[in-house]
Amino acid sequence: MYTARCGRQPGITVLGEAADGREAVAQARRPRPDVVLMDVRMPRRGGIDATRELLAESARPPKVVVITTFENDGHVTAALSAGASGFVLKRLPVRQIAEAVRVVAAGEAILFPAALRRMVAARPLGSAEALPRAALTGREEEVLRLMATGLSNPQIADSLTVSLETTKTHVGNVLTKLGAHNRTHAVVIAYESGLVVPGFTG
C-alpha cells in the first residue's frame, strides 16, 4: 500500500511489492532497487531478518528504510542495528515517506532523534551493544553527538566550522571505530552505550 502510493510521488519508481519478508528479499534481487521500504512486522519472515539478509548479499546492497506503526517499536532498533538506514512512521503523509526514500537514496540517514531515544530506552536491559574498545577522539565524539541530533554532514561542518571533507573523514572514522553499518547504526550504538544521553540537543 505505502509502496504503491510512494510510486505516485515525483522521482520514485516502484520496481516491486512483497507480502512478506521472504518475498521482499526475492523481489529485491531482480531488479535491484536503490531503496527498500521494509515493514518490520511481516509474516513468514520478519523485517529484521529480511534486512540483515538483503544487506549481506552483495558489495552494493540496496538501502533499507523500515516502516512501523509505533514510535517505541523495539523491532525498529533491531532493524537499525542490522543495517537499515532509517525509519518512518506509517501515520506520516505519503509525501514525507517518499521524501525519506529520496534522502536515503542520496546517501543520508533518516533520524527522528526523540523517537529513537524512546525506542532505545524501551529495550530490555542487557540488549545494548557494548561500545568498542577503540576510543573515539574528542572531536569524533562531538561529531557523533551532532549526528545523534539528526544533522547532515554539511550541517555538522557548519556547526563545527570545519570543511565538509573534514567532517566526512570524522564520520568515516566514527563508523569504523564503532563497527557501525552506517551513521544510523552509529547513533543507535551511541545511545545504547550511554555516549549520547537522552535530552542532548547539540
From TrEMBL:
The keyword Transcription applies. Residues 129-194 form the HTH luxR-type domain. The modification 4-aspartylphosphate is found at residue 39. One of its GO terms (molecular function) is DNA binding. One of its GO terms (biological process) is regulation of DNA-templated transcription. It holds the Pfam family GerE. It comes from the Bacteria. PROSITE patterns: HTH_LUXR_2, RESPONSE_REGULATORY. The keyword Nucleus does not apply. Signal peptide: none annotated. CDD domains: LuxR_C_like (cd06170), REC_NarL-like (cd17535). Residues 1-105 form the Response regulatory domain. Keywords: DNA-binding, Phosphoprotein, Transcription, Transcription regulation. PANTHER family: TRANSCRIPTIONAL REGULATORY PROTEIN NARL-RELATED, TWO-COMPONENT RESPONSE REGULATOR. This is Response regulator transcription factor. It comes from Streptomyces roseirectus. The lineage of its organism: Bacteria, Bacillati, Actinomycetota, Actinomycetes, Kitasatosporales.
